[in-house]
């Protein structure tokens, strides 16, 4: 059983780790990922450089931590969209697509997405994608089940259908290389997904 001092030390370490990630995200937003140095990050965090290296071996490690936090933030927003009772299932799925489209709107986020998709970061990319799929599939399944109950979607198992939907959106950055093409691709994907779910109405823009 952890003693109180041990718990306090763990809490302090977790807080400092989080503060370094937040400081890195702030500096990335101001200067860009490539222009940011470890010195910039520790200055923003108000800690010694040695402290940084207690938590991260390299700048790339903190870049990956910021990218992982960005993925978690997107997941939280998507879960909120999925739970929104004031929208129809169709509107909620389209809003899900809008949240995916919004990833990379900020210049530093575009840099993070590029870093995330580098060949050397493939293992991290796959791990984060798997985490997102596991976390979000139940939320998408609930939207699909609601759509079936309302007669908007047809002949589907919600759990399997949600996995298919997540696979479609998860493959987006594999098939769309230019970030400028992502908005149009999301619109096409929304239509593809909704038709696949059996929806025969007008696809919201």
Blueprint (SSEs and pairs):
Elements lengths: L3 H28 L6 H8 L3 H7 L3 H25 L5 H14 L4 H10 L5 H28 L8 H13 L1 H4 L6 H15 L9
Helix pairs in contact: 1-2, 1-4, 4-5, 4-6, 4-7, 5-7, 5-10, 7-8
Protein model, in words:
The chain has 2 domains: 1-56, Orthogonal Bundle (Arc Repressor Mutant, subunit A); 67-205, Tetracycline Repressor, domain 2. By secondary structure, it is mainly alpha-helical. The protein has helices at 4-31, 38-45, 49-55, 59-83, 89-102, 107-116, 122-149, 158-170, 172-175, 182-196. The protein contains 10 helices and no strands. Helices cover 74% and strands 0% of the residues.
Into which percent range does the helicity of residues fall? over 70%
Overall shape: elongated
How many strand elements? Answer: 0
Q: In whole angstroms, how far apart are the ends?
A: 55 Å
- Summed up, the domain count is 2
Look at the structure and give the mean pLDDT.
83
Give me the oligomer status.
single chain
Major sheet: size, sense and barrel closure? none
Order of helices and strands: HHHHHHHHHH
Helix count, DSSP H or I runs of 4 or more residues: 10
| CATH-assigned fold name of the largest domain | Tetracycline Repressor, domain 2
CATH architecture designation of the largest domain: Orthogonal Bundle
| Structural class by helix and strand composition | mainly alpha
Whole-angstrom Rg: 20 Å
Strand content: under 5%
Kindly provide the name of the CATH class of the largest domain. Mainly Alpha
Give unreliable regions as ranges: none
Summarize the model shown.
The chain is mainly α and 205 residues long.
């Amino acid at each position: 059983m952890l003693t109180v001092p041990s718990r306090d030390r763990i809490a302090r370490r977790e807080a400092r780790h989080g503060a370094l990630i937040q400081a890195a995200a702030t500096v990335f937003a101001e200067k860009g990922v490539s222009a940011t140095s470890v010195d910039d990050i520790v200055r923003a965090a108000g800690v010694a450089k040695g402290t940084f290296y207690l938590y991260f071996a390299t700048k790339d490690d903190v870049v990956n931590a910021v990218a992982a936090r960005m993925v978690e933030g997107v997941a939280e927003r998507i879960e909120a969209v999925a739970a929104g009772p004031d929208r129809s299932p169709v509107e909620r799925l389209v809003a899900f697509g809008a949240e995916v489209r919004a990833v990379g709107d900020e210049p530093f986020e575009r840099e993070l997405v590029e870093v995330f998709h580098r060949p050397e970061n493939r293992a991290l990319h796959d791990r984060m994608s798997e985490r997102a799929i596991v976390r979000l599939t139940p939320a998408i399944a609930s939207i699909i089940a609601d759509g079936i109950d309302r007669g908007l979607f047809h002949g589907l198992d919600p759990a399997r259908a949600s996995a298919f939907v997540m696979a479609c959106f998860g493959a987006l950055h594999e098939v769309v290389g230019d970030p400028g093409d992502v908005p149009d691709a999301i619109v096409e994907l929304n239509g593809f997904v909704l038709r696949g779910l059996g929806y025969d109405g007008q696809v919201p823009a």
